[in-house]
Amino acid sequence: MGKWLVLLIVIWFIFWVLKSLRRLKAKTHHNSTDGIEDMVQCHYCEIHIPKKEAIVADNHFYCCSEHYQLHSQSDT
Ligand SMILES: [Zn+2]
Question: Cα(54) to centroid of ligand 1, in Å?
Fold first, then answer.
């Protein structure tokens, strides 16, 4: 009977470790994406957009290709 109790405790402990590990992983994953996601400002309209969606041209970020064109036109 004592053997089963030990086995139960061991199983419970493994579950507990896995659960807390998963929670820790989810927490760190959440932290890396929440708020710290690279946001850039459109050089033309100054709207904030995620860096991965931005258009990069002439060392500046643009929210769309239209704004890049508009800015390059007004520049020259
Ligand atoms: Zn823009």
Answer: 9
